[in-house]
Amino acid sequence: MAGLINFEDEKEVKQFLDNLGVEYSYQCYREKDPEGCQRLADYLEGVKKNYESTAQVLKHNCETNGHGESCYKLGAYHITGKGGVTECLKTAYSCFMRSCNAGGKKTVDACHNVGLLAHDGRALEGGPDTTVAQQYYEKACAGGFAPSCFNLSALFIQGNSKGLAPDMALALKYANRACELGHVWGCANASRMYKLGDGTEKDEKKAEDLKNRARELHGMEKERQLKFGECE
What we know:
mainly alpha
């Protein structure tokens, strides 16, 4: 049947992949389609393993088109200096911020990374900024990103000297949400808080249920790791 690719024919496959690259390049630079640019970047990275060219396309698509996924991947490149870009946490932070605010497939990941870098402080002139960290963790948590919910819980357990008071009720709220999203330590922390009555009335049954859920999630994670490492 015309149009079908014989994937056992190396030359035919190579021609097919080369044609894909031409098509995506046309979509990106002639049709000025941001999704075409993202497809081109994925092609250059995944098929051609040409990270320098990938970085150039990501930079174009982020800065010219404001494409959220390209901004996110460009930020990841700046974390490690991949593709010949400058290794710079401040630039990565800026890219993640832009991705978070742009929306798209990588929004919650980008918002979480903004939170991490603000919390850590190495990407900011004035050091750690828990106000910004909290703001972006909240965005990611609202989008269903469990690690951000857990980090919010930890923030409210600890508080800090810059105006964030400990708030055990909020800490419990976010630990519960992290647990609901499958975060083992969210379940463990919520269990302990119910057991001790931190931020809530003591509730032995809830504490036990959450402890069992933490054990279940931990077991599932160990099983996944075992399956990943299996050899035939």
